[in-house]
Structure formats: C-alpha cells, structure tokens
Amino acid sequence: MEIDETIAATIVANIKGVLRHEINLFDTHGTVIASTDAARIGQYHEAAAIAAASRCSVVVDDDHPYRGARNGINSPVLIDGSVAAVIGVTGERKSVESFGDVIVKMTEILLHENIEQTARYNRRILETNLINQLIGVHQDTELIRYLSAALEWDMHARHCVAIGRLVHENGDVVLLQQRHLQRIDDAIYTADADECCLMLGPSHNVEDTLRALAERFADDGAHIVFGVGEPTDDLPRLPHCYRHARLALDWQRFSGGERIVHADRLDYGLLLPSMQPDRMAQFVERVFCGLDEATIERHRGTFEAYTRFNGSIIHAARSLFIHKNTMQNHLNAIAKDTGYNPRILHDYAVLDMAFRVHDYLRFAGVAPRDADGRGMEEQ
Predict the structure, then answer these.
(1) How does strand 32-35 pair with strand 23-26?
(2) From the record, what ranges are coiled-coil (predicted)?
(3) Which of 31, 115, 133, 289 is deepest in the core (most CB within 10 A)?
C-alpha cells in the first residue's frame, strides 16, 4: 500500500514524541519515506528492504552492518496479513531492541486510523457523486449502477429524499457535524457547512429517523430543520422528489412551525412558490392599495387576533388588551383602507391570502411595489 507523505511524517513524529529516538519509516522496497532526520528521506536502506522481504525484524549493529543503515532495529508492519511498511528506530542495539514490538504496534494503529479515514473519505466522494446523479436532471444510468454497486446501495429499493438545513439562531455560526449523519444505517448522504441531503432507505421510518437526528444535533446546540420529498422506487422520479423536498424546506424556513415538513402535506406551500413574483406583487398592491409597511403590520395584528379567535371580537379584543369597540374600529379600518371587510367570508379569504403573499415576497427577497404602483425589483 502507498502511504501518504503527510501521514508518514505524522507517524514518525508521534513515535519520536514517545521514544525520544530517531525514527524512520520505509516503504516495502527499503526507501525512507519519512524520518525525524529529514536528510535521510529518499535514501535506500538495505536492512529495511530485508525486513520487508523476510517479514522479520532486522537489527543493525557494528557486527551486522547494512548498506545505507545506521545502528538500530527495523521491523515490518503488517496490515491485513501483508507488509505495508517498515518502521525503524536508530540507536545502540541494547537500548532500542526492546522497542521493536512497541513501534510496530504504534505504527499499525496509526496506519489503521489512516486507512479508515481514507476509506471514509472515499466513501463520502462516492456517496456525493451518486446523490448528485440521482437528483440531477440528466441521470447517467450506467454511472448510477456502478456507484450503487461500489456502495452496496440498492438502486431498486424505495427511497426518500430529505434535505436538512441548520438554522442559525441569534447570529451564531454553527457548522453541520457530519458524524451524526454517519450513524444512520441504510442511508447515503452528502453535506456541506450548513446543509445536507439524505437518501433514506426502506428500513427507515422517515419521521422517527429525522427527529432522532434533529435531537442529536440539538445536543450539540444546533437547530436543524428538514424538507422531505415523496418516497419512490422509480429512479427517474428522484429529481422531482428532490425538488419537492427543497420546496418543503424553503416553506419551513418561511412559515416556521414543525421542524420536519413533508412535501405531500403542503397546502399554501405548493401554491405560493409556484406563482410569478410580479403577479404576487400586483395582487398585494391591489389589496393593500399602496399602504405603508407600518399600516400593514398594524392591520396584521388585528387580523391575526381576529383569525386566532375564529371571528370572536370579544376574545380578540381581550388578547390585544383593547375594548371590543376599539377592535371593531380596527376591523373597520382594514375595510376602509383595503376595500375588503374581514367580517365578510369572501373578503376575509382575500385578506388572508394578501398577508401571506406579502410575507412570502419579503421572505423571497422581492421588494414591495411602490405606493404609486410602479414595478418591483428583486433585492
């Protein structure tokens, strides 16, 4: 196996930190690939080559010299039954011979960690490539088949796409901890600093899995929300399911509430994002007639209280700490300013939609129309 130069340098540095002797790491041909004596890197070491070939430790002293070698002991390091490298410690035979087993064990541990880290990294690359293929507009079936086989991922099973996003509260910057995602069986994922995309297999109860995942993130002080697409066993439908999961996630970020939003349970969340922004702005302008934001917000407080108490003026007034007659005056003001009376069912529905569309445009970064009705700009 080839050992990365950085990993090799880390190994010799870690061992020297324990043993306080010069340490050398060799490849299976006897070449120094890392050393605490930088001048020796790249040199040939006959004793190391013999240790690799014989799979036995080779001691170097004045009575047993070898080309390119200094006094010390050189021991082969086996990984899965094969010689992966040779580790050597420089010094007089009496003082270093007892270190043979120690340095081999330390090197094996460090190499295993490197192998596992590399395997995890390679798997992450494969999973990212597979998910990008699955959710992309132009799927490459052969590549999907190859990546699925490499990952032992069942491309014919029923899968569900879920997109998670960290919510940064109080301006705190929290990075997405991928270790939580790695603990999910029967799933593949891709992730960046604050968002992840999971492909959950048929063994999962999606709701339970995502709630448990959210709780693990919460233990780290991070708040994560999810948008979930419809499950499918039809690969060509996965891009569609991904778009719906993205739609559900965006709607959660707009509306708040449940931290897990399923696309197949959306109502307004299906309608508003599909509308043309210029038409939405035109509708808001039509209902609110150029009212300024302060007036709209004042009317919103009245309207929301009226809605929350199912049209009960008495209870709505109490919630706002005002007299019922004042509440009636506020409702009348809405009717006067907009031409829509919230106490008339048809007008109530128009106002309800207008407030929702107004908020969604603001969330989407679309500037409101001017009071004189001139166009809109995207911020």
Answers:
(1) antiparallel
(2) none
(3) 133
pLDDT tens sequence across 15-51: 888 888 899 999 999 999 999 999 999 999 999 999 9
Strand pairing class (187-191; 195-200): antiparallel
333: amino acid identity, one letter: A
In our burial notation (b when 16+ CB lie closer than 10 A, e otherwise), range 292-318 reads eeeebebbeebbebbeeeeeebeebbe
Q: How many CB atoms lie within 10 A of CB 95?
A: 12
Distance CA 200, CA 164 (A): 13
| Alpha-carbon torsion, ordered 16, 17, 18, 19, to 10 deg | 30
Does the domain at 5-110 match CATH 1.10.340.30? Answer given as: no
pLDDT-based confidence at 293, cuts 50/70/90? very high
Closest CA to 96 of 134, 148, 60: 60
Sequence length of the chain is 379
Cα 203 from Cα 197, distance rounded (Å): 18
| CA-based R_g, the chain, Å | 33
- Name the residue ranges covered by the structural domains of the chain: 5-110, 158-272, 275-363
pLDDT tens digits, residue range 208-264?
999 999 999 988 888 899 999 999 999 999 999 999 999 999 999 898 888 999 999
We find that the CATH architecture of domain 275-363 is Orthogonal Bundle (1.10)
Greater confidence (371 vs 229) lies with 229
